[in-house]
Write a structure and sequence with these properties.
The complex is a heterodimer of chains A (708) and B (586). Chain A is α+β, with helices and mostly antiparallel strands and 708 residues long. Chain A has 18 helices and 21 strands. In chain A, strands 3, 5, 6, 9, 10 and 11 form a six-stranded mixed β-sheet that branches. In chain A, a hairpin with a 6-residue loop joins strand 15 and strand 16 (328-335). The longest helix of chain B has 26 residues, at 527-552. Chain B is elongated. The model of chain B is unreliable at 553-557 (pLDDT under 50). In chain B, helix 1 (3-24) packs antiparallel against helix 2 and helix 2 (32-50) packs antiparallel against helix 13 (566-585). Helix content of chain B is 28%, strand content 34%. Classes of the chains: A alpha+beta (708), B alpha+beta (586).
Chain lengths: 708, 586
């Protein structure tokens, strides 16, 4: 009994100690996690260092917080506090039973009873819970931090990538440091910058300043451009370890550094060209016709962009007056009224050009284009746009009618007459009474309608409308009593009368329909007493009719001169004895084209791939191909510099009797494949299968019996 | 039961009765039982010797099955098969099978891609049930032109099986450059076609890869060889100078071809040009002169104005010696002459188109548009091969065979417009095709062919050697002499076998001065092509054997064999010996 109660106390003691240890472990894990993460993030320490750190934290925790040293008395005290049924007597259980007095013994018995029934204390879990919460929160903090860092790094990396060339550089042997200062030309509006790599990717016309420090003093330091020209650098200090040079770069190519006879690898010079400005015109259309009544304005809307800045944009306008041989041109330069001082990359420009302000009258034409100049003084012109104002006076002329017109009745006078009358009406508007004005306008509308109906007849439309003579339709004639035909005739329209459909071709009909539409609109305006508004439609109708008339003009081809008939018997009978026959003899040897060297080089490299050896001639061909790669590299170093180096390495390896590397062969082949063009097709003799003696004999015998 | 059997058996019974009675009535009754037994055995054996006794060979038991594993076999499907059969069958590898262990089984269940033709032949008609393994993703058929004339296209055609759920991109790669590609859709078997014009001279190995994103599913070599064109010698004859002839002349001569032309410029006055032809002069068209040319380009009028013997010479050259003739149509078309008779011309009815769309029937189809007015067309007839047609199929250039040679008739007169308009490739294609098809063929004494399209290392390759010479042929491969056997039907065909030892370009096949390059593939290359071929062969075999067995009507049983009479003779002698000795000894 006693043992079991002691056992209970000891087990509680053990669990207490364990709980404290567990909470310490969790807490120290949390602390370690946070610290190692921070160290890893900033100093780059490996996560493996977390293990010793964890141990250390744990030991420190155990040392500082020594509550894990739980004694039996502590447990007893704890039990006393937590479980009232024990009546503060659990210590008695720990005492030697023999040393207890009677009262104590009685109490001990009671407590023993009580201790059997106590529930498992849940108090220890509290500490673990607190530690767990700490651990979870550190994990969350770490995750948040890593998310933030990653984001930051990603943003930073986009800028870092650009600079990475500058930072990571492979300096040639013997060079301790190099700084290259690139001053872009003024038009780029870019600041000068420095780089430490020798590969150049600069704007056209940039000034480059090289400053090269060597490890040991050297006698001579040179740049070799495009494998041909050499330029020496100037020593800056007396020891001849720092050298410098300035150069304006305007052509692509490559260069090498030559230090006392030792040549470095190849570095490319790539040039960024300045492009001419780009002009896009949104309005007007390439050709615009301004009809009578329309505002004589051109709304010009254009966009200009350039890669470094637009310096100026202007409009070049040419007005053409007159016709035939009396055409006069007047040139003017118009500005957009926008300041281009800021030299932005992009401008959206708008201008309304008043045509009368340019001195334009009906019948004149305006040609204009836009010129844009960028800050590198490169000029670009847009296409030419044409705006014309219709000449109403010309439409009134009778010239066209005097010439032969086929299949067109002379209906033009009527439309012209309506316009003239309408204009007359407008002039007399102030003097005439309102009633009179309206009457005349309506009458004009009726005229217009009649004219329209007349044209409609050509298209086979309804020939007349009965609305005006409803009252007098002859229906009262008693002789017609019971004649349904007369009534139908009086009250219906005559549509699609085949007799009326004339023999006009579809194109003319289409144009006629367009005329009719304009006439409809004109009539409408006249009928609602607005002759002013009717005029544009009337003019357009007239213009279209005029076009119709022009298109149907008949032309007669010019006749040619007559020649005397040939006397056939005399043909080719001239004496030709003294004429010497021309004889041409030539041996045009198919010149070995440079591209053939590339083709051969491809084959030779393929041979090298398999590891077989090649002869001197092949090496010579490879060398020639190398020269061609060199020429390409001068023009496009970005593309061909690496293959050029690879080819040089291959040639070097061959002369050293090594086998070249596979990667070099591939690089070189890729460039050659790109450089060589597809061979042109040439006829080639086909190979016959070896002739069978049997079949040949058969063929001969077959032929024998064939009559010739 | 035949009469013979009846006679033998009844004689035997009579003999047995007689002998038994004799033994029974003998005074000395000792060993009666033994004697009786010996008599019976002796008689039975005697009868058996007289009867045609047959037996079904032991071992072939109906329903005895075995499994054969070939490449691509899948353990799961075998397990499934075993489960369905409710027994575990004996599993053989391919090699065991070929050693002859299949003899005990009457049906073989083959799993995997199957067996090749050679291997199937070794099975000697055993019944075979094929459970083909599916090819999940791979190139199953492939072919391409291995020897390409310079300027011609490399054309790869084949089939790709893609059972994956993703699409596969086939990429033709040459010299580290992507030349062409094709996308195979998921869960589809698609025919693909890739082409490019090779830029190198001589041999090269391109690669064909199947890619899925960044993974390479398959990568196979495409060995090709670009051969230089062998020039054609051209003789030109014209009744008047014109641009068409001039452009052809310039183009060919600039490329080093021999061109000799004779153009009438006035009455009996000719402009004679010899380019790259040495001292050859086209004064008269003698047989000697014509011998040295492969093709004659002429118009009708010029041919007609030649003298009779010259015309005769041309006729003989074409019909007997295979010279080609390209004739341009003329305004004076006569259908009487031997060279124009087969070509009946007609014009387009109705409105003339301003442009003619031309389809050239070369090795590769080529389409081009030529501005041409009032084109003439050739009426199609038997034996005429159209070399160029318009989009409606009307023949513009036609060719017929005349004796050994060919005659082409060309109705176009302004193909140089292509050159002027910068469409040089159309011009080259047209004239290359026309000249090549018509010109005299290069006589070759020998031909070498390998029978396999994809020879693999460590496997035999049959080489067919054709020669018109009667000298005993000599063939060397990789500097090793090959023994040749003559074909039993064709006296000029010889065959030999070679075992290539290592993959890649071989040193070549040498025979009487000609050399043919060839390529041997690694065992792992074109895996699915061989697998596909094996599957097809095995399926065919399984079908055929199935049919055979059904026809014979003895499904699953071996044929019966006669029992050798020795087996009966020995006991007969022993028994007789016993009966004889018994009386002597005892």
């Amino acid at each position: 009994m006693l043992d079991s109660s002691l056992h209970i106390i000891r087990s509680i003691q053990r669990r207490w100690t364990l709980a404290i240890f567990v909470s310490h472990v969790i807490l120290s894990t949390g602390i370690t996690l946070l610290f190692t993460y921070l160290l890893h993030q900033f100093v780059g320490v490996s996560f493996w260092y977390g293990i010793p750190f964890l141990l250390a934290v744990f030991l420190i925790l155990c040392y500082v917080d020594d509550s894990w040293r739980v004694k039996e008395e502590d447990v007893a005290r704890f039990l006393n506090r937590s479980y009232p049924p024990l009546e503060e007597s659990s210590e008695l259980l720990l005492k030697d039973p023999t040393s207890l007095n009677l009262l104590e013994q009685l109490q001990v018995n009671k407590t023993r009873e009580a201790i059997q029934h106590i529930s498992q204390p849940s108090l220890f879990n509290k500490k673990i819970k607190v530690s767990l919460i700490t651990l979870v929160s550190t994990v969350i903090i770490c995750l948040l931090l890593s998310f933030l860092f990653n984001n930051f790094q990603r943003r930073a990396s986009s800028t870092v990538v650009v600079n990475s060339d500058k930072i990571m550089t492979k300096l040639p042997v013997g060079v301790s440091a190099a700084s290259i200062r690139v001053t872009p030309p003024a038009y780029t509006q870019k600041r000068a910058y420095e780089q430490t790599t020798f590969d150049l990717h600069v704007e056209e016309g940039a000034a480059i300043h090289w400053r090269v420090s060597t490890i040991v003093p050297v006698k001579n330091l040179q740049f070799i451009y495009n494998d041909s020209s050499a330029v020496s650098l100037h020593p800056v200090n007396g020891e001849h370890t720092v050298w410098q040079m300035d150069k304006l770069v305007s052509h692509p190519g490559f260069y090498q550094l030559k230090i006392d006879g030792t040549v470095s690898e190849l570095y490319k010079i790539e040039i960024v060209k300045d492009f001419a400005p780009v002009i896009t015109i949104h309005s007007p259309k390439p050709t615009t016709v301004i009809d009578y009544g329309e505002p004589a304005l051109v709304n010009l809307h254009a966009g200009v962009t350039d890669d470094y800045g637009v310096k100026d944009v202007s409009i070049n306008a040419t007005v053409a007056k007159g016709s035939g041989e009396g055409v006069k041109f007047k040139q003017q330069k118009l500005s957009f009224g926008t300041s281009f001082n800021s030299q932005q990359l992009q401008y959206q420009l708008q201008k309304i050009i008043g045509l009368p302000a340019l001195g334009m009258e009906p019948g004149d034409e305006l040609y204009f284009y836009i010129t844009a100049i960028d800050n590198h003084a490169q000029e670009k012109r847009s296409d030419i746009f044409i705006v014309s104002i219709t000449d109403t006076a010309r439409l009134m002329s009778m010239d066209g009618l005097l010439n032969g017109v086929n299949l067109k009745p002379d209906y033009f006078r009527s439309q012209r007459q309506i316009i003239l009358d309408a204009e007359q009406l407008l002039r007399e508007k102030d003097t005439a009474s309102a009633e009179n004005f309206k009457n005349r306008s309506n009458n004009l509308g009726i005229d217009q309608k009649l004219l329209r109906l007349r044209y409609g007849k050509f298209l086979g439309e309804e020939a007349s409308s009965n609305e005006d003579n409803v009252g007098d339709n002859g229906l009262g004639n008693p002789a017609d009593f019971g004649n349904a035909g007369v009534i139908l005739d009086a009250f219906t329209d005559h549509h699609d009368n085949a007799e009326d459909a004339t023999f006009l071709d579809p194109e003319t009909k289409k144009q006629l329909k367009a005329v009719l539409t304009e006439m409809w609109s004109s009539e409408l305006q006249l009928r609602i007493f607005k002759p002013q508004d009717a005029l544009p439609y009337a003019y357009k109708a007239l213009r279209l009719l005029k076009a119709l008339q022009q298109s149907s003009r008949a032309y007669v081809a010019k006749t040619s001169i007559k020649t005397a008939p040939i006397k056939l018997e005399k043909r080719l009978t001239g004496k030709l004895e003294k004429i010497i026959e021309p004889v041409t003899r030539a041996n045009i040897s198919a010149a070995v084209k440079p591209v053939e060297e590339l083709r051969d080089a491809l084959r030779i490299l393929e041979q090298l791939k398999t590891g077989s050896s090649i002869d001197e001639r092949s090496i010579h061909t490879l060398r020639l191909a190398g020269v061609q790669i060199n020429n390409y590299a001068v023009r496009e170093p970005g593309m061909y510099l690496k293959p050029l180096e690879a080819t040089k390495r291959i040639l070097q390896a061959l002369s050293d009797k090594h086998s070249p590397t596979f990667a070099d062969i591939l690089l070189s082949q890729k460039a050659l494949q790109k450089m060589a063009d597809e061979p042109a097709l040439l006829p080639s003799k086909k190979r016959a299968t070896p002739s069978l003696s049997l079949s040949e004999q058969y063929f001969r015998n077959l032929n024998k019996n064939k009559p010739n | 039961m035949s009469a013979w059997n009846m006679i033998v058996i009844s004689m035997g019974v009579i003999l047995l009765v007689f002998l038994c009675r004799k033994e029974f009535i003998r005074a000395n009754k000792a060993r009666l039982g033994w004697r009786m037994l010996a008599s019976v055995i002796a008689v039975v054996c005697l009868v058996c010797m007289g009867l045609p006794i047959t037996f079904t060979p032991p071992g072939i038991v109906s329903g005895n099955k075995a499994i054969v594993l070939t490449e691509g076999a899948d353990a799961d499907s075998i397990q499934q098969f075993n489960k369905a059969q409710k027994q575990k069958l004996v599993v053989y590898q391919m090699d065991d099978l070929l050693r002859g262990e299949h003899m005990e089984y009457d049906s073989l269940h083959v799993f995997g891609y199957g067996l090749s033709d050679d291997e199937l032949q070794m099975l000697k008609g055993s019944k075979l049930v094929f459970h083909p393994a599916k090819i999940i993703s791979g190139i199953t058929t492939i072919d391409w032109n291995r020897n390409i004339e310079k300027g011609k296209e490399l054309l790869l055609q084949g089939t790709y099986t893609n059972q994956n759920s993703f699409s596969v991109v086939l990429v033709l790669n040459g010299f580290n450059t992507i030349l062409d590609s094709f996308t195979v859709l998921p869960k589809k078997e698609m025919d693909f076609r890739l082409h490019t014009i090779p830029k190198q001279n001589g041999k090269a190995v391109y690669t064909l890869s199947a890619l899925h994103e960044k993974d390479t599913l398959e990568k196979e070599p495409i060995p090709i060889e670009v051969i230089a064109a062998s020039p054609i010698k051209v003789l030109m004859l014209a009744a008047s100078p014109d641009f068409e002839n001039r452009f052809v002349k310039d183009w060919l001569s600039k490329n080093g071809y021999t061109v000799v032309s004779k153009t009438a410029i006035s009455a009996n006055k000719f402009d004679k040009t010899s380019l790259n032809a040495g001292s050859v002069s086209p004064d008269r068209f003698t047989a000697n002169l014509l011998d040295s040319f492969d093709v004659l380009l002429s118009d009708e009028n010029a041919l007609l104005s030649l003298s009779k013997p010259e015309q005769e010479n041309i006729y003989n050259q074409v019909t007997r010696k295979g010279m080609g003739m390209i004739i341009r149509s003329d305004t004076i078309h006569s259908s009487k002459e031997w060279f124009t008779a087969p070509f009946q011309l007609y014009t387009w009815q109705g409105k003339q188109p301003t442009h003619l769309s031309i389809h050239m029937m070369n090795d590769e189809m080529h389409h081009a548009v030529l501005p041409v007015e009032q084109p003439l067309f050739i009426r199609s007839k038997n034996g005429m091969q159209p070399l160029a047609t318009d989009s409606a199929g009307n023949i513009i250039v036609g060719m017929i065979a005349e004796g050994e040679g060919k005659i082409s008739f060309n109705t176009l007169y302004n193909t140089y417009n292509w050159l002027l308009a910068g469409n040089a490739s159309n011009y080259y294609a047209f004239w290359s095709g026309l000249l090549q098809k018509t010109a005299r063929k290069k006589k070759s004494e020998t031909s070498i062919e390998t029978l396999l399209s994809l020879p693999v290392e460590q496997q035999p390759v049959s080489i067919i050697y054709g020669t018109s010479s009667v000298v005993s042929p000599f063939l060397e491969i990789n500097e090793k002499k090959i023994a040749l056997s003559q074909n039993e039907h064709l006296s000029d065909r010889w065959q030999g076998t070679y075992w290539p030892t290592k993959p890649g370009w071989q040193l070549g096949i040498n025979a009487h001065g000609i050399n043919k390059n060839w390529y041997v593939y690694d065992k792992d290359e074109w895996k699915y092509v061989t697998a596909h071929k094996k599957t097809r062969a095995t399926k065919q075999y399984a079908q055929n054997t199935d049919k055979n067995i059904k026809n014979e009507g003895i499904e699953g049983k071996g044929s019966p064999a006669a029992v050798p009479w020795v087996y009966f003779f020995l006991p007969f002698i022993i028994c007789c010996g016993f009966l004889w000795m018994e009386r002597k000894i005892f």
